[in-house]
Amino acid sequence: MTHLRTGSIGATPWRDRLLHHKWALLAILLCQMGQVTASLLLPSFSADIIDIGIGGQDASAIRYYGGLMGVAAAAQLALSGTAAFLGATVAYRIGQSLREDVFAKVHGLALSQVQGFTVGSLITRCTNDVLQVQSMLIMALTMIVVAPIMGVGSAVMAVRQDAQLSWLLLVSVPVLAGLIGFLTIKAVPLYQRMQTQLDRVNSILREQIEGIRVIRAFLQQPREAGRFAKANADLTGTAIHAGRLMAMIMPSLTAVMQLTSVALIWAGASRVRDGDLEIGALIAFLSYVALILIGVMMMGLMIVMLPRALVSARRITELLQSPVEVGPPSDPKPLPPRGSGLHLRLEEVGFGYPGAEAMVIENITFDVGPGETLGIIGATGSGKSTIVNLIARLNDPGTGRVTLGGVDLRDAAPDEFASHIGYVPQKAYLFSGTVADSLRLGNAGADEATLWNALEVAQAADFVRAMPDGLMSPVAQGGTNFSGGQRQRLAIARALVCDADLYLFDDSFSALDQATDRKLRAALRQAVGHAATVIVSQRVASIRDADRILVIEKGQMVGLGPHETLMQTCPVYAETVHSQARPEEDAA
Amino acid sequence: MSMAQDRKLETVSRTQTSTPGPRTPGGSLAGEKPKAAGDAARRIWAAFGSNRKILIVTVLLSLGSVIGSSIGPWQLGLATDLLVSDDFTLSALMRQLLIVAAIYLSASGLNFAQAWLVNDLVQNMGRDLRHAAQAKLARVPLKWFDTQPRGEVLSRFTNDIDNMVQNLQQVASQAMLMLMTIIGVLAMMVLLSVPLAVAAIIAIGVSIGATRLLSRAAQPRYAEQWRETGHLNSLVEETFTGQALIRVYGARDRVDQRFADKNTALTTASMRAQVFASLIQPVTMFVNNFAYIVVVVFGAFQVLAGAFSIGGVQAFIQYIRQIGQPISQLGSMAAQVQSALASAERVFELLDAPELSTDAAKTGLVLPVRGHVRFEHVGFRYRADQPLFENVSLEAAPGQMLAIVGPTGAGKTTLVNLLIRFYDIDSGVIWLDGKDIAAMPRDDLRRAMAMVLQDAWLFTGTIHDNIAYGCPEATREQVIAAAKRCHVDDFVCTLPEGYDTVLSNGGTSLSQGQRQLMTIARAFLLDAPILILDEATSSVDTRTEMLIQTAMADLRQGRTSFVIAHRLSTIRDADMIVYMEDGTVRETGTHDQLMALEGGYWHLQTGTKGASPH
Known about the structure:
The complex is a heterodimer of chains A (about 600) and B (about 625).
Chain A: H1 13-20, H2 22-54, H3 59-107, H4 111-117, H5 119-144, H6 146-161, H7 167-210, H8 212-217, H9 221-274, H10 279-320, E1 344-351, E2 361-368, E3 373-378, H11 384-391, E4 399-404, E5 407-408, H12 414-420, E6 421-424, E7 433-434, H13 435-439, H14 448-457, H15 461-466, E8 474-475, H16 484-497, E9 502-506, H17 514-527, E10 532-537, H18 540-543, E11 548-553, E12 556-561, H19 563-569, H20 571-579, H21 583-587
Helix pairs in contact in A: 2-3, 2-6, 2-10, 3-5, 5-10, 6-10, 7-9, 7-10, 9-10, 14-16, 19-20
Chain B: H1 2-18, H2 37-47, H3 52-84, H4 90-137, H5 142-146, H6 150-192, H7 194-241, H8 243-248, H9 252-304, H10 310-351, E1 373-380, E2 389-396, E3 401-405, H11 412-419, E4 427-432, E5 435-436, H12 442-447, E6 449-452, E7 461-462, H13 463-467, H14 476-485, H15 489-492, E8 502-503, H16 512-526, E9 530-534, H17 542-556, E10 560-564, H18 568-571, E11 576-581, E12 584-589, H19 591-597, H20 600-606
Parallel strand pairs in B: 3-10, 3-11, 6-9, 9-10
Antiparallel strand pairs in B: 1-2, 1-4, 4-5, 7-8, 11-12
Helix pairs in contact in B: 1-6, 2-10, 3-4, 3-6, 3-10, 4-6, 6-7, 6-10, 7-9, 7-10, 9-10, 14-16
């Protein structure tokens, strides 16, 4: 059951999953049929009690049929209990496997896909949406299936009691079904709209909470109040509308069934008088009518819950069926062994977001050999991180190719590729656990000496040592119990623990003060001397000593070369350097 | 691009962690009773406001409906008795059946009217509560607001109100009806036959007892299930947030293993809870059937003994069926009431939060504002036991640029927050054009200021609307002009829909730097006499920053400006630099003067570490 690498999920993620439990589902169906039969026998036995027992003045018949009723009730308890438990089991198993598949699917999403879905929505899909589907399944298997069985069964029993009276059911049951169908068709879209409107109300409120200062500073409270009032009125309007429909359901259904009972007595009257129909049968008939009502009402109640679960199911399907954009190759090519020194090449690489007209980067070509350092500098939004994301294979390039040791990244096995690179993202995100756990992310077997070594290089050893539990100190999710600078240094140490052939630093020194930055870079040069290194930065100081510097503006390469050359040949670079001139240099 | 993304994640996770898992909003599990349930109930009652009379009408309507549906079966039983009696006539039967039909129809009609009214009432109350919540946001002091986790506030105003409305509607429209139905039906039973009623009541008692026993057994297992859900959810959240890292670090197998373990643990816990939970419905059903059998068998003997009529038995059968459902649902109703009260309490707690002092009696600002700002012995603390500012004095002449620098936590942002009266000072005076700012309406004061905050807040709407946020009446030309000055136009024109591009949570993502540029353009358009820039360009790259320097200089022209920044290029031109540390002003002067001092400012600028020389 823990087979997580479900490569591709078929077009029908639901059917296969249900088929997987076909025997349990069959058992549930049988149990439900059995329990319905048992409960339908009750009115029939009670008719016998009345007709044979009371009618025939036979006390032993009353006892006999009373006993039979007890047996039927006990059988019903056992069967419906079994069905309920089996139903829940199937629902939980399906929920478990859905979570598993969603979880596995998310691993393989390209960064652009993650951004498209948004992380928040992915989390919801794996947690709340699955839960919704799961509860819906429980209801479906324990209650919704019962309704039609109950409907058909009681109709059969009613006909058996007295065929002539059953025409009444032929009228009232379709009326009931029509009523429920009508209200459902009306209500479902309303509930869907209500959900959207509720989301809107909530998101406005969320925005207003986040922007409380700006709203106050700009005196926009009246406008925000107006915006909210409109969304609120929309929501309330729909909710009232939907609620009124729901208010109609119960009274109208009950009225139909109650009128049916009245009509039943009327229709049966003359035949009872003539002796064609036993009074007990008539009363049993009344009970069946009540049972049908219960079945129909159950269905009505469930149907109200259906839209939410359907929306959830659709969101899960959408995710599971989204294409695998950075998936593993069918026939992976081996990368050179670790430690042998790798060459990174980008050949005319371009990348654009799906649907967007403009490319984010275009025609990027460079290479970095073992022991070399490449710096990438450029303005906000110029495409620096996009390049790093392609090298880390978080996205695949739209045009051109990225090769490592001569192998196109798309042809390399993901795990093998991962073992070659050490990556420090722009935002230092740490996983919860201890400092040691956190550092061992890419190298589970690293010993303590390796960890301390990495911490020393990353200038993080001092503060880790200063904590009472050292390497065993707790790390909160995301690393929020550390300052931004500490977090960044731990993230750098984490990459160093990998002992990789290629290091990527995506603006990883931004939260460090300049002195620490300087020390760190000096230590880094010693520690990763053998590897190829790519450093992205906004700070000239962080990259000026690189072997080559790639200057990027609006997605285009505008310069590539060492600092001195670029100062002469690349005006964008020279301006950037000038804009960051330090006071003492300025004075000089 | 990914920085904006990251920020978004932060907001997501912030709110997500505050309400882990899909449990009842506010994390109130079934077992957790609201502290002051009676109080919350009273407040809900008050929240119905002028509609309370209608609420009473709905109760009367339910009563009428219940009376109808209680006497209906009895009357129908009389019809059946008529069938087997000697004085049967078709017209007598017809009359009796018409009476029953009329009773049933009016019961349903009353029921419908009641449900309709309750729905309108509760939904309108929900609207009023949401409205009150939103309005409250405008009145709470930031000092209070800062102490509340944002996710928590949001959750109370959204999930809790929603939960409250949904549960209240259910409870108000059904619980009342159910309770009355049970009472009405029991009364009818007793009237018809005391022995049979006693037998039925015993059966009902057994049913309630069995259900309670089962749910009590399920309770700790439910708690276990929620706990496991919470564990799994936080692992999912952490993994998805760090999705890229896990892939690049090849850590997938380990995460998968942990996930599989937690997933299995959750399923096991759920099933353990389900063993009991799935029995509740069948057991209730069984006990109802049992009551039915008792009525039929016992009733039959009574009829045999001539103590009861056959129509009476029929009525009893219908009564048993009629109260079976309400009784089995009473338990879940009780849980709904509790959940609604718990949510209500949390909502009211927030609505009761302290409010800002009123501005009503204050006299307005004299126009035009010259922008002469003076802090005189200002003291302020966020928390009573932690002094932040003591005795801060400084002055900015009209048109001057004042740069505020210092290490993190020095109180730079607080200083400008006091000026714009996000917080009220504890001692001293802040003068604007010779008038105490505490003595003028907040809106007047703020109208004189344009502020660019550290956090580049944009709302869901077009780029145009976001830039024109402070002055909605601005024309497209004015917006574009401001955007061009601040280099916003550069990236807006690459977007397919230009200024009409809608910024939303899930859609177009701008980088943090681009967002900041937009907020600068927003301030640009505002044209206020005093300008406050709080780390306005911290995420903008240095070159772009340099490019907008001239624009910023123009913006500052003729205005008093307060600029908080780290970058030298931003602060070098200041008329005066205020160097702050630990809530006090340590050094003031021009750049050259402060560099010559070789004090804290000098250390900050040269990047040398070491203790400040004071």
